[in-house]
Amino acid sequence: MLGKLRDTPRQVHILIIIFLILTFISLSRSSLAQPQVTITLSEAGIAKVEYLVPTEGNLSVTIQLLGTPDPTLGLTVVDEKGLPLAFDTDQTGRYLTVATLNSSQVYVSYYTQDLTSKSGIFWIISVNSPYPLKVVLPVNATPVDMNILPTKIYSIGRNLAIEYPAGSLQLKYVILYQPATSPPPQGTQPPASPTKQETGTSKGLYEVLWPLLPYLVVLAAIFVALAVFLALRGKRKSELVELGEEDLAILDALRKAGGAMFQGELQKAVNLPPTTLWRRVKKLAELGYVKIEKKAGRNYVELLE
C-alpha cells in the first residue's frame, strides 16, 4: 500500500510532462503560417497553381494540392534560393510533404486542368481550398458571378486579380475579345495643304491614346468587377448579372464583327431562333447596349460603346 502511494507523485509528474509536450506540439502546428496560394488562369482554361509556404523552422511541411498536377508539365518544389527539395505525395495524391532541410520558404508550382470547365461562352473555376486564394484571370476576362465575397480586387498588368478567403469557390467569367484596331498605314502622304496645327494635333492624339489602350481595357474590367463586388455585398444575387448568356453571345458576336451587322447575319452567328433573337436584341436596345436601324428594309444592329 505504501509503495503505491510513493509511485503516485511519479505517475502524476509523467502525465504532466506528456501533457506539456503534446501542448507544445499543438501550439507549434497551429502557429505555422498559412501558405500563399495563387491560381493563374490561361485563355485555354489551364490553371497554374503556386504555393509559397514559410517553414518556420519545421523539418517538413505538408500542403493540400488543389487539383491533380499534369504529369507532362511536371511539378516544381524548390527553396527560397531555387534549389530543389525532396518531396513525396500520399496514396491519394492530394497531399504533398516536403523535406525543408535548412530552408526558410518552400515554393511549389504545377499546372492542372481539373479546376476549370466551360459552358457556352462562360468559363467556370471551381475549387475547395483550405487556404486563402488569389485568382488571376486571363487578359480581357470579366467576372460575371461568384459565390464568395472577395477580400481584394486589383490589376496585375493587363490581368485582373481577385483574392478570396478559404472555402469552396465557384467563379464564372467570360473573355470578351476586343476588335482589332489597325494602326495608321505607314508611308502615307499628308493632305495636300494641312496646317501645322492640324498635323501636330492629329499625331499627338494618336501617340497619347494608342499606348494607353491596354490600361483602359484593364480599367474597364476592374469597374465591372467592382460592380459584382457591390452586388454581392448587398446580397442581391438575382441582380448580379444583368445580361444572360444569350445577351452576352449577341454582344460578343457584334464585337467580333467590328461592332455592327444585319439581324440575319447576327442570327447565323449566335444560332438563335428569329423570335428569340429579336426579343433579346430589343432588350439590349432598351438597356442602351445596341441600337437598331432600318437599312434597305432590313434591321441593322449596331453596338453602342
Count of DSSP-assigned helices: 5
Radius of gyration: 29 Å
Per DSSP E runs of 2 or more residues, the count of β-strands stands at 17
What's the helix-strand series? Answer: HEEEEEEEEEEEEEEHHEHHEE
Structural class: alpha+beta
Largest sheet: 7 strands, mixed
The fraction of residues in strands falls at 25-35%
Helix content: 25-40%
Mean pLDDT: 78
Distance between the termini: 95 Å
Q: What spatial order of strands do you see in the largest sheet?
A: 4-7-2-1-10-13-12
Give the overall shape, derived from the CA principal axes.
elongated
List low-pLDDT spans.
1-5, 25-31, 194-203, 235-241
Description:
The chain starts with a helix and ends with a strand. The model is unreliable at 1-5, 25-31, 194-203 and 235-241 (pLDDT under 50). The chain has helices spanning 2-30, 196-233, 245-256, 263-270, 274-286; strands at 36-41, 47-54, 60-64, 75-79, 87-89, 95-99, 105-112, 116-119, 122-129, 133-136, 141-146, 152-156, 159-164, 167-175, 260-262, 290-295, 298-303. It is of the alpha+beta class and 305 residues long. The longest helix is centred in the last third of the chain and has 38 residues, at 196-233. The strands form four sheets. The chain has a seven-stranded mixed β-sheet with strand order 4-7-2-1-10-13-12. A four-stranded antiparallel β-sheet has the order 8-9-14-11. The protein is 33% helix and 32% strand.
List keywords for this structure.
single chain; 305 residues; alpha+beta; seven-stranded mixed sheet; four-stranded antiparallel sheet; 5 helices; 17 strands; 32% strand; elongated; disordered N terminus
